[in-house]
Design goal:
The chain is α/β, with parallel strands linked by helices and about 240 residues long. It is about 30% helix and about 30% strand. The protein has 2 domains: about 140 residues, Medium-chain alcohol dehydrogenases, catalytic domain (Quinone Oxidoreductase, Chain A, domain 1, Alpha-Beta Complex); about 80 residues, NAD(P)-binding Rossmann-like Domain (Rossmann fold, 3-Layer(aba) Sandwich). It is built from 9 helices and 12 strands.
Length: about 240
């Protein structure tokens, strides 16, 4: 049987390149050749990951369809795709109430073995409602931002953030920067971004923050100083 390389996680300072058999797929599944896979903040949370080790991490992936089951009609070999690792049932009371993160199916589904592998098997349910074709203008590297950006978009939707509102994003790491970028894209009236890292603050400014604040300062005072004496309408925690 054909082999592939995977990055097997044991702990944060012990990730080993190991061989595994390339997954076989069923009639309703896809085999994806991984072209890029992002590193999520949760991938380096050792206290969270080590309980399930050893395992192959990586869920912000993009790749090419190299094999498809005979019943798969919506995808072709050679197509460039992004796939989610968890998918909801879309029929339970939580899904019907737009609370998909509480869906039992969401917490039970996954792809195999993980994005830090050369190949990935997408189960039928992931193919059905969690796999999306990439536009020609989007690179594989850019596609790895689909999942984290989707989290940000969903947060904005649930919080019902409106363009006329002022927004403060606490923390300017990757998630924080995506929040800054989305706030800028929807035309938020004024965007504040905080962090203790000057490089991240500079990036927040480049992403569209109107005012950057070193979190070692008094954040409330700085916001009022640049917001007509008022605090903001919405605070997003991304620390």
């Amino acid at each position: 049987m054909e082999k592939m390389n995977v990055a097997m996680y044991y702990k944060n300072n012990d990730v080993r390149i190991q061989e595994q058999t390339i997954p076989e797929i069923s009639d309703d599944e896809l085999l994806i050749k991984i072209m890029a896979s992002g590193i999520c903040g949760s991938d380096v949370m050792e206290w969270y990951r080590i309980k399930k080790a050893p395992l192959v991490l990586g869920h912000e992936m993009a790749g090419e369809v190299v094999k498809k089951g005979k019943n798969v009609e919506n995808f072709k070999i050679g197509e460039r795709v992004f796939a989610t690792h968890h998918v909801p049932c879309n029929t339970c009371r939580f899904c019907l109430n737009n609370q998909h993160t509480l869906c039992d199916t969401l917490h039970k589904t996954k792809f195999y073995p993980g994005g830090f592998a050369e190949y990935l098997r997408l189960p039928a349910i992931n193919v059905d409602r969690g796999t999306f074709k990439l536009p020609d203008t989007m690179s594989y590297d850019e596609a790895t931002f689909i999942e984290p950006l989707a989290c940000v978009v969903r947060g904005f939707r649930i919080a019902d953030i409106k363009p006329a509102q002022t927004v403060a994003i606490l923390g300017s790491g990757m998630a924080g920067l995506l929040n800054v970028k989305l706030a800028n894209t929807i035309g938020s009236r004024k965007i504040f971004a905080t962090d203790i890292n000057e490089f991240r603050l500079d990036m927040a400014k480049k992403m569209g923050a109107d005012h950057i604040i070193n979190a070692k300062e008094n954040i409330k005072t700085q916001i009022k100083k640049h917001n007509d004496g008022c605090l903001v309408d919405v605070v997003i925690l991304s620390t």
